[in-house]
Amino acid sequence: MSCKKARGKRAKTRSKLTRREGKATVNILLAKFNTGEIVLVDIRPEIHSGLPDAIYQGVVGNVVGQRGKAYIVDVHKGNSPKQLLVHPAHLKRLGGGSRA
Predict the structure, then answer these.
(1) What is the rounded distance in angstroms from the CA atom of residue 16 to the CA atom of residue 54?
(2) Cβ(35)–Cβ(100) under 8 Å?
(3) One digit per residue, pLDDT tens: the chain, 100 residues?
(4) Would you kindly state where each structural domain of the chain is located, as residue ranges?
(5) Which CATH number is correct for 26-95, 2.30.30.70, 3.40.50.300, 3.40.720.10, 3.65.10.10?
(6) Radius of gyration (C-alpha) of the chain in whole angstroms
(7) What is the rounded distance in angstroms from the CA atom of residue 26 to the CA atom of residue 66?
(8) Residue-wise DSSP of 27-88
């Protein structure tokens, strides 16, 4: 009997998704972003909701809109444009756009 290897969302990410910083605070979980802001996708592995795929760790993109509590972020992976649906805990503000 052959066993098929599991290929989940966090496969092959042992070092990439290991957090060496503190825990997420309320301010991080409830962060607000405006349309047009430039953000960095910085995955916090302890928060499972709105977790983007690990290949987008460290990618910079623009906030396009909001869907529920998550934000729609336009990024480029290679030459192809992608749209990610990301929880605000996995985003860091870099600048650009308007701030409220």
Answers:
(1) 8
(2) no
(3) 678 888 887 888 888 888 767 788 899 899 999 999 999 999 998 888 888 998 999 999 999 999 999 999 999 988 999 999 999 999 999 966 655 4
(4) 26-95
(5) 2.30.30.70
(6) 15
(7) 19
(8) HHHT----TT-EEEE---TT--TTPPPGGGTT-EEEEEEEETTEEEEEEEETTEEEEEEE-G
